[in-house]
């Protein structure tokens, strides 16, 4: 018997914003707890995620993850202006990408060739810290923060919380 999952409005909104585990949360407090559990640790596979969330694992999630990444790649493309901007910036500066990224999305980093644009890539799931913690900035290769350009990828963690 197939099991159908129906998302609440909140769960759907969080899923569309890139939160892959929205089916397991019901409110913003649960969202923040789950983010804290999942963003700041290395997770090797979906089974690890389900163990952390104390949810029974089903291998169908592996196929869902693969399909999600495939759909993302098919439906998203770099804005040519962004590519040009990164290329120009790289001529005169060292670039570091810092992102609160769930382990399931790590394949996207290489699929999108981010390593060709950035000298350093810091992912919360690898460095065990999440933005906007200052500890994240201290993990960069750079001695000083003067004359650095910061380009955010998340309105909430890059602009709202730090201010």
Mind sketching the topology for me?
Layout: H1 9-16, H2 28-39, H3 46-53, H4 60-75, H5 80-92, E1 96-99, H6 106-111, E2 120-123, H7 124-127, H8 134-138, H9 155-160
Parallel strand pairs: 1-2
Total count of helical runs of at least 4 residues: 9
Please write the CATH class name of the largest domain. Alpha Beta
Radius of gyration from CA coordinates: 17 Å
Choose one word for the global shape: globular
End-to-end distance? 50 Å
The protein's oligomeric status is: single chain
Portion of residues in beta strands equals: under 5%
Q: Would you give the CATH topology of the largest domain?
A: Rossmann fold
Number of domains: 2
CATH architecture annotation name of the largest domain: 3-Layer(aba) Sandwich
Report the strand count: 2
Largest sheet: 2 strands, parallel
How helical, in percent, are the residues? 40-55%
CATH homologous superfamily assignment of the largest domain: HAD superfamily/HAD-like
What structural class results from the helix and strand content? mainly alpha
Order of secondary-structure elements:
HHHHHEHEHHH
The low-confidence parts are none
């Amino acid at each position: 018997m197939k099991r159908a999952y129906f998302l609440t409005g909140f769960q759907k909104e969080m899923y569309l914003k890139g939160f892959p585990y929205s089916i397991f949360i019901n409110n913003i407090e649960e969202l923040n707890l789950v983010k804290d559990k999942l963003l700041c640790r290395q997770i090797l596979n979906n089974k690890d995620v389900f163990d952390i969330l104390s949810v029974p694992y089903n291998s169908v999630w592996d196929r869902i993850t693969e399909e999600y990444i495939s759909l993302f790649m098919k439906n998203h493309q770099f804005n040519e202006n962004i590519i040009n901007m990164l290329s120009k910036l790289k001529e005169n500066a060292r670039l570091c990408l810092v992102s609160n990224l769930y382990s399931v999305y790590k394949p996207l980093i290489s699929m999108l060739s981010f390593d060709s644009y950035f000298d350093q890539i810091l992912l919360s799931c690898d460095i065990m810290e999440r933005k906007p913690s200052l500890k994240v900035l201290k993990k960069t290769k750079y001695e000083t923060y003067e004359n650095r350009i910061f380009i955010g990828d998340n309105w909430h963690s890059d602009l709202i919380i730090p201010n």
